[in-house]
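Q: How would the structure tokens look for this protein?
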Amino acid sequence: MRKSLSLLAAAAVLSTAGIAQAAEYAIDPTHTFATFEIGHFGATTNRGRFDKKEGKISFDKVAKTGSVDISFDVASVNTGTPMFDKHLLSAEILNAEQFPKARFVSTKFQFNGDKVSSVDGNLTIMGKTQPVTLKATQFACYDNPMVKREVCGGDFEATIDRTAFGADYGVNWGFPKNVRLVLQIEAVKQ
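A: Here is the predicted structure in token form.
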């Protein structure tokens, strides 16, 4: 009887040892950016980024699950050309006054082995929400010697149809509908 109780107790301890628990991460604003690229008359590519962002990430390496909720201040768009930034913020394109935030909320993490390979979720721009899959081009977690904590991050990309969000300026002139999004995200374990 004593032996079976000991085995039962050992089994209970071992069964809880593998239970995963998600860790909370805060985005590092100095290593987190959302950039975009769109063709310009087939000759060049216009590029820009959003400089102000906030968000939280939950990540469980063992259970291979996670969640992301990150938003970008649309008025922080930065192309390096103030006149172009002003046009992007206008009602003709991003309508930043009426829709000041763009937001991505994950629905599922996909893994290839132990590494995140993509994150499925919903992207909201200009009040319209569409499903988007952010494919990881690289992903890693490491012990950061500067902050003395674990940091996880990666580069993610997706191509979206901007007209699905109501941004159709210039399409009738030949500007492409597709916009390439590149997200660089690093987050510090709390």
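The two ends are 44 Å apart (CA to CA).

Residues 140 and 152 are 6 Å apart (CA to CA).

Upvote if useful.
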